[in-house]
From TrEMBL, chain B:
Keyword terms of this UniProt record: Activator, Nucleus, rRNA processing, Transcription, Transcription regulation
Protein name per Swiss-Prot or TrEMBL: Nucleolar protein 11
Matches recorded under Pfam families: Nol11_C, NOL11_N
Keyword Signal: no
GO biological process: maturation of SSU-rRNA; positive regulation of transcription of nucleolar large rRNA by RNA polymerase I
Taxonomic source organism: Oryctolagus cuniculus
Compartment(s): Nucleus, Nucleolus
Domain Nucleolar protein 11 C-terminal: 402-721
Coiled coil (residue ranges): none
Domain named Nucleolar protein 11 N-terminal: residues: 1-335
Matches recorded under InterPro entries: NOL11, Nol11_C, NOL11_N, WD40_repeat_dom_sf
Gene name for this UniProt entry: NOL11
GO cellular component, one term: t-UTP complex
Transcription regulation recorded as keyword: yes
GO molecular function: RNA binding
């Protein structure tokens, strides 16, 4: 089928940022995740946990709280004291409002979704009214002594609980005054700690307030009397997060030791109506602090410093034991961070604030399957390009010829011209870019590197010509009237005549670059190819359908049109459309070369899906030329090695 | 809990199923496929999951299939007999049965059996058995008659018992109904044993259906009689030598699972060791039902109504039940999870007229176990089922306990003892617990009144009923302590789970203070004390091993240097280990203390009251036990029910915690404390070494990973197949 030389690249030194907050939206079954660098990602839990949307981070904007309100509106608040609303259509920030209370530590939306509550550094709790366009400050609650680290509404909306340092306050929403102040014990295993920080509170409809604190306790308070009802000591370190199920029959807490505990409301005795909270299951899927947890109807979701997003389905809630019941660990972004210049064998790596350009090495040797070939030239770091300003890079691209690099932040667009003279490389920023090219969601060069396509976040697509080191604006495809949907995927045909773009709502637009026309194909109405009809008819192999990671990249073999290359984080696959499709009886994945079998058998068992699972986790894979592949891996151990050390637990002795 | 799943109906259009139903359903070498033979001329090969026939074969007009087709598991061929004597063998490719292999036999065939793991076996109507291969070599060979002329084979089954094939068949005398014989045929060596089935009291009944299962030694033959009950007979697989014409008794297993007066035929099959399936009408007028019964708990697990009637035949292979329901061959997958009591309590059959039948859902365990009046049972329902008839105990007019309680008040000690023995010999009633409590209370009450009255033997007997606890008779220990009855105290410590710490401690004080001579005279249960002094003789061996503490040789350990005196005389230490500091009787008493339950906080204050000499003695004993423990690899002591290492360690810690300031001042305890100190130190160093090892292993792991990692960049060759 195919023999390839694979450039196995592990020098992409990418460290995902730690997860700070997660917020689950029950209506759309989506999950918003914010990271410590201010990035916010939206995952579609119905679509195999695909990372649909993303908002780039900002150095000064660390999110401390994230919440959904008014159904589908997403808000965040952070230590710069601002409340931000995100535009989920255009994928940018709608507006930012300063709460004037210093850094914001906590935020929560009212049960009805019409009000926002923020807890600030200066001890104030501020109530905001959500209007269709913006949010408006309404009033302050009674000022507290120290910062408000956690907030929770009573489901009826009449009271709130606020966790601070050493105490929890219960406020009456109508009057805004604190009706109870519940002191949290500082003692920790007999030793008095300096302070006890209430990291999380949850207000249940029966009036119980659950708090988690830095002394490792989960405590149940009666908000009517302001007394402690029950206390569980669950960790030697901080308990940092809590999330309650909508039915209030279970909740989940995350500790700094990386453990997630599940608590359930179970009857005291069988057939008894009296119920009590019992710690039922511990999960240890994290090595570091679990900074945040969420509770979807069927799963526990947790994230923290070790950068993994872990989705742990609750077995008792899962009806069918299929792959939906499996544990998910999402570490890498599903968007593209790497682009490659096929002609010059260059790789461009995108980091939060800089780009790196590497030249791949070469070899003259050949070998058999599995051999590592001696390098005649090692890979070379050519360029380190740092962006100015606090904003993170949204997207970047290197042209196939290797002489152009384009990248964009939320407010600036950069285009660079590279010239190669022997071993020297010179870089020049292209000046005189048109003013409307300020921010791009996706950038693409045409195959011949003569055209540049830029998808802006307003839904328009700009086409520019690259000639002699200059950029000339050719045309702008305007979005269809009324839509401002950002295009997140771009693809161009090899001859440069056709451009396909896809937004977040699964429609595909095809533009004719020559005639400057727009054709739109929505997925259901599209004319499928014969092969795809066959696939639909016969169905995929059952193991193929059971895969649980989204495909992150597709490309075509330049010389052999029958071959499609696609990959996800754990495997890559070359589909040969000329071979028969596998049926459920054939072995889908065959890692070993067929040995004893005759040629006939081999021909009979050969099928269209050629799968390899050697490279993982796989961030990028592409064909450089007919027989050369480049695979970029990012081993998890390398990431863990660069994280701060986790809390050490002693194994022996006491 | 057993469950019947959604049924699958197989069309029987191709089958000429007559009123007598089918000839048979037999498994093939493929799990999901079965051979169905009708009572006429046709054999159909079904794939159950697809609900469709894969093939169908018929014999010529005028011929009749007389024996259900089977599949040979060795060759995958199908075998059928038509017109009693003509054997046909064919396979899937064959189309016409006329053209396939044919062998005409010299005698009439009753059944062909084929199961996994052996060749098919042919059973002739006259009881002779032949292997298929041997038969085909010489089809016309003479077949002997095994059973008498008047007997007719009614039923047969073929098993594998630990890789040996065993065939069982049941015959009935034609003229006299109700005379049944069971024959068990073994192969290599070929032996045939005959058993007469004794029907017992139900002499007149006719057996309607049989089923059997087998374990290593017995064939468990179940029969469904015309009275609607299931009986069980155990037939040995391997014949007990000598005896001719052995008899087998049958016992009632389940009562009235089908209506006794059912005209139609009923069927029975064993599903697993706890479950049977029964096909037939549960009540005289009702429609037919398929019911699953748990025979262990004698409960109905599930049932399914079959309104269109059945042929009264039932087959069970793998996990599927087959029956003819109306015109369809119905396949019901059956699943059974492990039986539990809760699961076995069963469910009530979906009875159509809930008003008329108030059937209890399950057996009342309270009454059926103990003294159950028979009349109540019959009245409640016929459905209360019992494996055996419980012997009805005759209840005297005045309960024995009341009489005994009266006796206690005035009778002599001797007399009470006799009465008590009588009472205890009686069957235990449900309220036995409380009665025993009452008796003890009565005895203790009299003890208080009359200081001379101490019915020691009675009390000992009562304690040994395992019914007493401290909270039930707190006075008992008090009196024993008062009388320093160490034997009684030991017994109480062993039997009572809830002795307060203060009492435990008082016992300990007595055990430590009582003098050796008086102890020697008392008969104390010594089973927890294995002969400790025995080992004193193999001193040589001990010197070789030295004091090895968790594999740490103290000689090498530098902590020894802190104790030069001990270092010089290692014999001293071994001396201490070899001789037990207390006499065996005392050791047994102290072991009882070690076994008793306590909580530290409550025990500590009482331990402080023990005199220092006694503390030292106890510590010495504990240390001795520890050394004994550490001498073998499993860290246990010899003997029956010895104290465990953790019990010993906990008590050492407790004693030291409570009395350290006192003990440390005593010169005679110095060596002991030194030894303990050394021991703790060695433990700490073991743990620190373990931590070190952990770190080193982690480093090794890192190195290992580095070896495996391929560096940051490489070019590799990949071949996709």
């Amino acid at each position: 089928m195919g023999e390839f030389k694979v450039h196995r690249v592990r020098f992409f030194n990418y460290i995902p940022s730690g997860i700070r907050c997660v917020a689950y939206n029950n209506q759309s079954n989506r999950l918003a995740v914010s990271r410590t660098d201010g990035t916010v990602e939206i995952y579609n839990l119905s679509a195999n946990y695909f990372q649909e949307k993303f908002f780039p981070g900002h150095e000064s904007r660390s999110t401390e709280a994230l919440c959904w309100a008014e159904g589908q509106r997403l808000f965040s608040a952070g230590l710069n004291g601002e409340i931000i609303e995100y535009d989920l259509q255009a994928l940018n920030i709608k507006y930012a409002v300063d709460a004037f209370g210093g850094p914001i530590w906590s935020m929560t939306a009212s049960p009805s979704g019409s009000q926002l509550l923020v807890g600030c550094e200066d001890g104030s709790v501020k109530l905001f009214q959500i209007t269709p366009e913006k949010i408006e400050f309404e009033r302050n609650f009674d000022r507290q002594k120290s910062r408000i680290l956690s907030l929770s509404w009573h489901p009826s909306g009449t009271h709130i609980a606020a966790g601070s340092i050493d105490y929890i306050s219960v406020f009456d929403v109508k009057s805004g005054s604190a009706i109870h102040k519940m002191m949290v014990d500082r003692q920790y295993m007999g030793v008095s700690k300096r302070k006890c920080i209430v990291w999380g509170v949850a207000f249940l409809s029966d009036g119980t307030v659950i708090s988690v604190d830095s002394a490792g306790k989960v405590q149940f308070w009666d908000s009517a009397t302001g007394t402690l009802a029950k206390s569980h000591l669950i960790a030697n370190a901080d308990v940092q997060s809590i999330a309650v199920a909508e039915q209030e029959d279970s909740f989940v807490v995350g500790t700094a030791e990386g453990t997630v505990f599940h608590f359930q409301l179970v009857p005291v005795a069988s057939s008894s109506t009296e119920k009590q909270w019992v710690r039922t299951k511990p999960f240890q899927h994290h090595t570091h602090d679990v900074r945040t947890v969420a509770h979807s109807p069927t799963a526990l979701i947790s994230g923290g410093t070790d950068t993994h997003l872990v989705i742990r389905p609750l077995m008792e809630k899962v009806e069918v034991k299929n792959y939906d019941a499996a544990l998910r660990k999402i570490t890498f972004p599903h968007r593209r961070l790497i682009s490659c210049s096929k002609k010059r064998q260059l790789l461009l790596f995108q980091f939060a604030h800089h780009l790196e350009l590497w030249r791949l090495g070469s070899t003259v040797a050949t070998g058999k399957n599995g051999d590592t070939l001696p390098l005649s030239k090692n890979a070379e770091h050519l360029l380190h390009l740092k962006t100015k300003g606090p904003e993170n890079i949204i997207c970047s691209c290197i042209s196939p010829c290797g002489s152009w690099i384009a990248c964009s932040t939320a407010s600036r667009f950069f285009l660079y011209r590279l010239t190669y003279q022997h071993d020297n490389l010179s870089l020049k920023r292209v000046s005189k870019m048109p003013a409307f090219l300020r921010s791009a969601v996706q950038i693409l060069f045409s195959e011949d590197s003569a055209k540049l396509f830029v998808a802006s976040n307003q839904g328009s697509l700009h086409v520019g010509q690259l000639l002699e080191g200059r950029f000339r604006h050719l045309h702008t495809f305007q979005p269809q009237s009324g839509t401002v949907e950002a295009m997140c995927l771009l693809a161009v045909s090899p001859d440069g005549d056709w451009l396909a773009a896809s937004g977040t709502s699964a429609g595909v637009h095809v533009y004719s670059v020559k005639h400057l026309k727009v054709f739109e194909y929505s997925i259901p109405g599209k004319q499928y190819t014969e092969w795809s009809r066959t696939v639909q008819k016969q169905g995929f192999h059952h193991l193929w359908l059971q895969r649980d990671t989204p495909i992150t990249h597709i490309s075509f073999h330049p010389k052999r049109p029958m071959h499609i290359l696609l990959h996800d984080a754990y495997m890559f696959c070359i589909i040969d459309k000329s071979l028969p499709l596998p049926n459920d009886k054939t072995l889908l994945y065959n890692p070993l070369p067929p040995k004893s079998e005759s040629d006939v058998v081999r021909r009979r068992t050969a099928h269209a899906f050629k799968i390899s699972k050697i490279y993982k986790p796989l961030l990028f894979m592409d064909l450089l030329d007919e027989g050369t592949l480049v695979a970029v891996e990012r081993p998890l151990d390398d990431i863990i090695a660069q994280l701060p050390p986790p809390i050490k637990k002693k194994k022996f002795g006491t | 809990m057993a469950t019947l799943e959604e049924e699958i109906a197989l069309s029987t259009v191709v089958l000429g199923a007559g009123p007598d139903g089918l000839l048979g359903v037999e498994p093939t070498d493929k799990a999901d496929q079965f051979l169905v033979t009708d009572s006429g001329r046709t054999v159909v090969h079904y794939k159950v999951s697809d609900q469709k026939p894969l093939g169908s074969w018929s014999v010529k007009q005028g011929q009749v299939i007389t024996c259900p087709a089977v599949c040979s598991f060795q060759t995958g061929e199908y075998i059928v007999v038509h017109d009693n004597k003509v054997l046909r063998i064919w396979n899937n490719e064959d189309v016409n049965l006329d053209k396939v292999f044919k062998a005409t036999l010299s005698a009439e065939v009753y059944r062909i059996h084929s199961i996994q793991g052996t060749e098919p076996v042919v059973l002739f109507k006259e009881g002779a058995v032949r292997g298929l291969e041997a038969l085909l070599e010489e089809p016309q060979q003479k077949i002997e008659a095994v059973i008498s002329d008047e007997e007719v084979i009614k039923w047969t089954k073929f098993f594998m018992v630990s890789k040996h094939p065993v065939l069982i068949f049941i015959t009935e005398k034609q003229q006299q109904h109700g005379n049944y014989f069971a024959y068990v045929q073994m192969f290599n060596p070929c032996t045939l044993s005959k058993y007469t089935l004794l029907l017992g009291e139900e002499e007149k009944t006719v057996i309607k259906n049989f089923t059997a299962s087998v374990d290593r030694k017995f064939i468990c033959l179940m029969s469904l009689s015309s009275d609607g009950c299931i009986y069980e007979s155990l037939i040995p697989v391997y014949p007990s030598d000598g005896e001719k014409n052995q008899k087998v008794v049958r016992s009632l297993l389940l009562k009235t699972v089908v209506s006794g007066s059912a005209q139609k035929s009923v069927a029975l099959t064993i599903l697993d060791q706890n479950h049977v399936a029964v096909l037939g009408p549960p009540l005289p007028a009702s429609k037919e039902c398929l019911s699953i019964w748990n025979i262990k708990f004698q409960t109905l697990q599930t049932s399914k109504e079959l309104p269109q009637g059945t042929s009264g035949q039932l087959w069970y292979y793998g996990e599927t039940l087959f029956m003819l329901h109306g015109k369809y061959l119905t396949v019901i997958p059956y699943k059974c999870e492990a039986s539990s009591l809760a699961g076995a309590l069963g469910k009530l059959k979906h009875s159509q007229d809930p008003g008329t039948h108030t059937i209890p859902h399950f057996v009342n365990w309270e009454t059926s176990q103990g003294c159950e009046p028979g009349s109540q049972n019959s009245e409640q329902s016929k459905r209360i089922l019992r494996r055996r008839k419980t012997e009805v105990s005759l209840q005297p007019e005045v309960p024995a306990s009341t009489q005994l309680l009266l006796n206690i008040k005035k009778d002599s000690e001797k007399h009470i003892e006799i009465e008590l023995r009588k009472f205890l010999a009686l069957k235990q009633t449900p309220d036995f617990h409380t009665v025993v409590g009452d008796i003890v209370a009565g005895l203790l009450g009299r003890c208080k009144e009359e200081p001379s009255f101490y019915p020691r033997n009675c009390l000992m007997q009562l304690i040994q009923t395992h019914m007493l606890s401290y909270s039930l008779c707190p006075g008992l220990l008090e009196i024993a302590l008062e009388k320093t009855d160490v034997q009684m105290l030991q017994l109480c410590l062993q039997q009572f789970p809830d002795i307060p710490e203060s009492v435990t401690c008082t016992c300990l004080k007595i055990f430590l203070s009582i003098d050796d001579d008086s102890l020697r005279e008392i008969d104390i249960n010594m089973e927890s004390v294995s002969d400790y002094n025995d080992t004193a003789q193999d001193e040589n061996m001990e010197e070789q091993t030295g004091i090895l503490q968790n594999g740490f040789s103290s000689e090498e350990d530098n902590c020894n240097s802190c104790d030069p005196e001990l270092n010089q005389k290692p014999q001293d230490a071994t001396q201490a280990t070899t001789s037990c500091p207390v006499i065996p009787q005392r050791a047994a008493l102290l072991n009882a203390i070690l076994h008793s339950a306590y909580s530290e906080i409550f025990l500590l204050p009482y331990l402080k009251d023990i005199p220092a000499q006694h503390v030292t003695l106890f510590l010495q004993y504990l240390y001795f036990l520890y050394l004994k423990c550490s001498k073998n690899a499993t860290m246990t002591l010899p003997g029956i029910h010895p104290p465990t290492l953790s019990q010993i360690m906990d008590w050492i810690c407790l004693l030291l915690d409570a009395n350290f300031t006192v003990v440390v001042m005593m010169p005679e305890a110095k060596r002991l404390l030194m030894n303990l100190y050394k021991f703790v130190k060695s433990q700490i160093s073991v743990y620190s070494e373990l931590n070190k090892i952990e770190v080193s292993f982690r480093e090794l792991q890192k190195l290992n990973q580095e070896k495996h990692s391929r560096g940051l960049y490489s070019i590799e060759v990949l071949h996709l197949f």
